[in-house]
Amino acid sequence: MFLERGFEVDHSTINRWVLAYAPLLEKRLRQFQRPHCGSIRIDETYIKIRGQWRFLYRAIDKHGNPVDFLLTAKRDLSAAKRFFKKMLKRVDSNGGRNGSDLEVMMTNRKRASERSIRVRLYSPGRPRAALRSQQVMFWQLIKQGASSEEAGVQAGASAPVGSRWFREAGGMPPSKFAKESQPFPGRYLCFSEREDIALYRAQGFGVCAIARKVGRSASTISRELRRNAATRSGGFEYRATTAQWHADRAARRPKPTKLAQNDALRQYVEDRLSGQISAPNGSIVVGPDVSWTKRRSVRRQHRRWATAWSPEQIARRLPLDYPDDPMMRISHEAIYQSLFIQGRGALRRELAACLRSGRALRVPRARRKGKGRPFVSDQIMISERPAEAEDRAVPGHWEGDLILGLKSSAIGTLVERKTRFTLLLHLPPMPGHGAGPRKKNGPALTGHGAQAVRDAITKSIQSLPGHLRKSLTWDQGAEMAQHARLKTDTGIQVFFCDPQSPWQRGSNENTNGLLRQYFPKGTDLSVHDEHTLNVVAYTLNNRPRKTLGWKTPAEMLKEVLS
């Protein structure tokens, strides 16, 4: 173009002219810029300049005329702030000169743009003094019992604004409004009372003296000084503003749960609830393959096998496993709430199937109907049992029973009264069971007849040392008809409970309830072999028990043997 006009200029010279004079020309041309009609749109894109990609911020009005632009190497919050500050400054100056004010600005949903606009632009509402008085009135109305919507309307705002104020504050007035919104003492300490406590504390008054002057109980003052004192200086220095901040933070609702905040604690709870069970040699044992059906009750059907510690066992075991970590603490009720109410915690709904009952809902316990008293010959009643067995002071006294399933299947259970150590008896069906019709007064082929139970108990008991074979308490079931022969073979004395008195074998009944998690009612128990029963017994014996001081039965038995 210069050659056509008779000039010969090198392209590098033209480039230097552009770099030197383009800003000056742009500044002069801004004086003649058209009005932006009160509406602009922010556009963002990448362009390539000299082989390098640059990010372009551009503002145009609704007629397509450019308002401002910015080239930057990085696309971040700092660049967005710089562009909006520069653009708004241009708009303000040109708007005042050309008679047009900015009313609408459209942009995308980029986070950097949103944050930069919030930093620069303010809501065109009432002055801050009026807004503060509205919020003070709002919290006063809340204290008088009004709802957030009603308080927002009466304070001069709106129902949605009142709901937002209440939700963002967590249901408690912010510290900056505490003095105005709580002028009178109520159930909780207000800011003015905290100022009096701080003043009396600085003057050297004791807890009881401060309580008399403030008109509160001594326990309230003591708790306030202990909970809400400032500890950053290394001691306990009570200041009203700091105490009010602590109180507001503690009173916010809803609060995030411990399981949602602490990943290590949540993993510990999940492992103890739904962890895989293993044999004594460490090999993993997989039970029935059962999928989660999202039903409230999983009774009378197979359930997935798991370690299945109860929430109370988990809560009480944590201080023993983590004695120096105060963050690894949780109550059993918090675990239950996380399972029952999904909005309260971070535990999966299907973990409720690992509870004892398998239910995700609390229901009242139904009273069972007592069965008739079966006939047992040569019985010895529980009243004749040695006194040392009553207080569980001496090991070696056992309780036993059967748990029954479909097709006349059964599993025998033995529980040591002192250590709660559990032995499971494998009672497979006898040869010929189910081959033909049942014969009256014929041999018991179900596997839990008197002879089969006697042989299974003899096999399990004889593996124990002599001082752990002192007595066995059983109900009046016909499976213990050969108790005299059992005493001859093993040396253990058998005692029988009173009719319809399962509480006389409390440890055994409790253990049977735990076993139902692995062997539910309404299932065939004959499908489980002896190895499987040993694995389940090993799992139960390595659960902490509340009655043992949260030690495991295996640990207690080891102490007894040593």
UniProtKB/TrEMBL annotation:
Q: Which residues form the Integrase catalytic domain?
A: 382-561
- Please, which domain of life does this record's source organism belong to? Bacteria
Q: Per UniProt, which keywords does this protein have?
A: DNA recombination, DNA-binding, Transposition
Q: Does the keyword DNA-binding apply?
A: yes
| InterPro entries noted in UniProt | DDE_dom, Integrase_cat-core, IS30-like_HTH, RNaseH-like_sf, RNaseH_sf, Transposase-Integrase, Transposase_IS30-like, Transposase_IS30_CS
PROSITE patterns named in the record: INTEGRASE, TRANSPOSASE_IS30
GO annotation, cellular component aspect: cytosol
| Keyword Repeat carried by entry | no
| GO terms for biological process, alphabetical | DNA integration; DNA transposition
Please name one Pfam family that this protein belongs to.
Answer: DDE_Tnp_IS240
Q: Name one GO molecular function term.
A: transposase activity
Q: Which family does it belong to?
A: Belongs to the transposase IS30 family.
Q: What does this protein do?
A: Required for the transposition of the insertion element.
Q: What is this protein called?
A: IS30 family transposase
